[in-house]
Write a structure and sequence with these properties.
Number of strands: 21
Strand content: 15-25%
Distance between the termini: 40 Å
Radius of gyration: 23 Å
Shape: globular
Structural class: alpha+beta
Length: 531
Amino acid sequence: MTTINRRLSGALALVLAAAALTSCASGDDTEKKHGDAATYQTGLVNIADAGDPKSGGTLTFGAYSEPAVLDPAETIVAGSTGGLEMSAIYDVLMRWNSADNTVQPQLAESLEHSDDYTTWTLKLRDGVKFSDGTTLDAAAVKFSIERYVRLGADEAMLWSDNVKSVSATDPLTVEFELTTKWPSFDYMLTTGPGMIVAKSAGEGEKFKPVGAGAFTLASHKPAESIELKANKGYWDGAPNLDGIKVVFLNDPSATYDSFKADELDAAFTREPDLVDEAVQAKQSGFLNMVSLGSVAVINGQDGHPGSDPRVRQAMHMAIDPTVIADRSYGGAGLPSNEVFPNSSVWHTDVKPLPYDPEAATKLVEQAKADGFDGKVTYLDASDAASKETALTVKAFLEAVGFTVELDLVSNVQEQIQKVAVDRNYDVAGWGISWREAGPYGRMFATLHSEGNLNVGMPTGPELDALFDEFQAAETEDEQREIMGRIQTQWNDQVPALIFSPTGEFLMWNKDVHGIVDTTNSMVLLDKAWMG
């Protein structure tokens, strides 16, 4: 299942004339100024100077969404979907440091690899206890990871396809034998597999979160709040905070307004206009730019228009993402049709297919000459900004010869059902979300032919081979060169229409200190303090 990109409404025109589309991007005195990529770099931003840590206080956090269950094997492990709560309860074996794009030990003591990167040896810290008093040892790590895979978690297929065995070679040592060379395997232990769940947690309706993190669950009031209390027996010493209160306001603007009014100590947003406002206001926090965050996936299965690569390329070249940003997001964000835009460490000099309606028209005419009837259904949500995006896409596509029917569903659940479960769509607003930290996992899950989050997009041996090559690359420079070839292949294959990356901003006020960032827009609060 894929996290869908929520869009915030704006007071914008609902109908576009095809003739006006090209002028909107260049504009005159009404032209919108889009974000500067230099302002949108992933990492900790505007961090206030701090003195000595102080003890006490409860940090109140306005969450983006409420997790159904605080189980990393059942819930996508990300900052927008309960990642702060789960990392507080379970900790992570390893953490990603955005400052230098490296993976470092957290709950674990060390992680080393063989010369060929096929054997990885994890050393655990002595004396670490779960909150139920049992020992977090190698057997517990093996149990938790095997549970994660057995329950079909978000990255379970990626794990099972690449990890041959997990062995507890002594009480504090876990050995991972891989099926292939994987120099960036350590990123896997920064996410769901690295959140170790105690055996006593159980499963299903009887599940209760039991981990070895700095906090434990105190209460969960559905649709209202989750409260965590300090774990005084935390392996690295009792946390400074007495607790964390996570509240669910169910409206991004209301959450941000509450944060600005000092009713919240911290908040998470991924709405383009709110991220823009917070960044420009120099709020402290962790900014994470997620590539392919706002896209429209294309169903490449037989019987759908997108089974013809000419149709996919035509749709791509028919759409100017700057107009999507203007019309749907009030000009906010970083509109781009690149796989990794210039705000990303993975950006390359390889250019995407251009906005070229003339070339798009010719491709549509070629497809029609071979029997294509020109009809495409575009699916999206029915909130104002999603509707605006759909209407803008419709106008762009019809300007080059398509006939577009809109299918605006009433809720996210229906969107997920049609796209991810039934695959009953032609083109659909979605989020593929390739992350800055160790992007291979999401690349595999979404666009490898064996990935479990593909939702019907066209895959093929060419992309598979490039992903496999990226997995085996040992240096960032080698990976970036391969990423350029992935962009080239994307231009030919066009599995989705790219509108922009999505900025995810977990912000906190100037009185909050000691927060540490990690992967998937998550943070660690074991050293956080207020004062």
